[in-house]
Design goal:
15 strands; alpha/beta; 6 helices; 7-stranded mixed β-sheet; Metallo-beta-lactamase, Chain A
């Protein structure tokens, strides 16, 4: 992906996965969405890759991370941001081993304290007591809070969100923001989402859910945020892509979707 267009620095994004925690099609399900032949209804677990001037920033190592890297021909990363510690967002961490071995490097992983504590618990073998032990993947944990922080030369603005009662983190870089797994946006987060060009926002299904926005709730939040373009993600098998009726400037994301945002 070319980092610049017309002399402007760009964020170039790939939606690696736009599906819910069980993916679509869901194993064992015979519903019309799971049987759909539309490739936009084939949804891996949620993740997005951003490239800015050659710097590759991954948001979440999804449970389908290996398949996503192979599909897009990605051979290296520079850093990973984590939204939270649910398994569909972290389990691909083990597959960072290949990049770490082949590229002979360590990867910084950024996340809230609870997120990093759970990553350390789930992947104990990655964090041996002996600092000289040779383990893969090689990673370093970087704890964040609600204050903006730097990743390489990029400033990242955390977006505090609620996933049911669980605090999770969205992220804003320049005029782009990614907010998955959200059922409530606090006022201070709305303030941080002003003036966006592109927003990716959670929209699980049409029926209510205790920890995710419905499509209607996501549309309402997107209207208030007012991004030029909003894409909805973390989509369940309750939504057939071709039947989604959305306001102008809003659309369902799909696996492999690419777009650029002026940085």
């Amino acid at each position: 992906m070319a980092p610049q267009q017309g002399g402007l620095t760009m964020i170039n994004a790939i939606v690696l996965g736009s599906g819910t925690s069980m993916g679509v099609p869901m194993a064992g399900c015979d519903c019309r969405v799971c049987r759909s032949g539309d490739p936009r209804d084939k949804r891996l677990r949620p993740s997005v890759l951003l490239e800015i001037n050659g710097f590759r920033l991954l948001i979440d190592t999804s449970a389908d991370y290996r398949q996503q890297m192979l599909r897009e021909g990605i051979s290296d990363l520079d850093a990973v941001l984590y939204t939270h510690h649910h398994v569909d967002h972290i389990l691909g961490l083990d597959d960072l081993r290949s990049f770490s071995m082949l590229n002979k490097k360590s990867y910084p992983l950024f996340g809230m304290r609870e997120t990093l504590q759970n990553i350390r618990r789930v992947f104990q073998y990655v964090f041996p007591e002996d600092p000289q032990a040779k383990v893969y993947p090689r990673v370093t944990l970087r704890e964040i809070d609600e204050n903006p922080f730097e990743v390489g030369a990029l400033q990242v603005v955390p977006i505090p969100l609620l996933h049911g009662q669980m605090p999770v983190m969205g992220y804003r870089i320049g005029n782009f923001a990614y907010c998955t797994d959200v059922s409530f946006i606090p006022e201070r987060a709305f303030q941080r989402l002003e003036g966006l060009e592109v927003l990716i926002l959670d929209a699980l299904r049409y029926k209510p859910h205790p920890t995710h926005f419905t499509v209607a709730e996501a549309v309402e939040a997107a209207r208030r945020i007012g991004a030029r373009q909003t894409y909805f993600t973390h989509i369940s098998h309750g939504i057939l892509h071709r039947e989604a009726e959305l306001p102008p400037g809003m659309a369902l994301a799909y696996d492999g979707l690419t777009f650029s945002v002026e940085f």
